[in-house]
Recover the amino acids of this structure.
């Protein structure tokens, strides 16, 4: 008679048996979390719990993160609808926003005005794209110049931006890049400082839109 090993009901069930499987489930869990966060954000905006200028950057960032995550799990996620069905996710507001691909302030008129909402979304996306490029160790002028130029151009659309410390720092970095050859790269120390300045400029931009509140844009 074969003796079976008793199963402990208190033992944690492991979803993976290898590092590759663990990474896959971590990525899927991150995607799940982004969808949930986006749904909460949409509902908060509809209920007027947050303003349009607070909503737009947060929504743009979540949509950007969603697109990035979807690329990383595309082999395991045929479609977002199938993913949500598989994990029994009842988040229609998030699904609608994902399908539209832009914040509600851009899709519809808002208290901030359609043009202002578009500018907020576009400038937020410029911040995110530039920071992601630096995180991916892009250092050459021809990799960063156009991204930074687009960001500086976006700043100019906002009243009072000329007084923002972050804008002046971005202009200084643009001058630095302008003085480099196309293939020339920033040093590691320069790249770290550049990311630090961009991150702080983004936080200042978000606070300025929110009327000076000390909110965290992430």
């Amino acid at each position: 008679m074969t003796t079976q090993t008793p199963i402990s009901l208190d033992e944690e069930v492991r979803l993976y048996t290898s590092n590759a499987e663990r990474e896959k489930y971590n990525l899927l869990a991150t995607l799940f979390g982004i969808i949930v966060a986006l749904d909460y954000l949409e509902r908060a905006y509809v209920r007027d719990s947050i303003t349009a200028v607070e909503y737009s950057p947060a929504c743009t960032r979540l949509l950007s993160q969603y697109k990035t995550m979807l690329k990383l799990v595309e082999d395991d996620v045929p479609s977002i609808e199938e993913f949500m069905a598989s994990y029994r996710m009842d988040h229609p507001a998030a699904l609608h926003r994902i399908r539209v691909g832009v914040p509600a302030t851009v899709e519809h008129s808002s208290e901030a005005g359609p043009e202002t909402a578009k500018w907020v979304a576009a400038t937020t996306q410029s911040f995110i794209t530039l920071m992601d490029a630096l995180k991916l160790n892009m250092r050459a002028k021809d990799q960063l110049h156009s991204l930074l130029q687009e960001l500086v151009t976006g700043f100019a659309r906002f009243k009072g931006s000329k007084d923002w410390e972050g804008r002046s720092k971005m202009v200084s970095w643009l001058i630095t890049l302008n003085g480099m050859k196309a293939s020339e790269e920033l040093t590691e120390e320069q790249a770290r400082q550049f990311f630090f300045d961009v991150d702080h400029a983004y936080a200042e931009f978000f606070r300025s839109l929110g009327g000076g509140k000390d909110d965290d844009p992430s």
Summary: The chain has a mean pLDDT of 82. The chain has two domains: 19-106, 112-210. Residues 203 and 217 are 6 Å apart (CA to CA). The domain at 112-210 is CATH 1.20.120.1130 (Four Helix Bundle (Hemerythrin (Met), subunit A)).
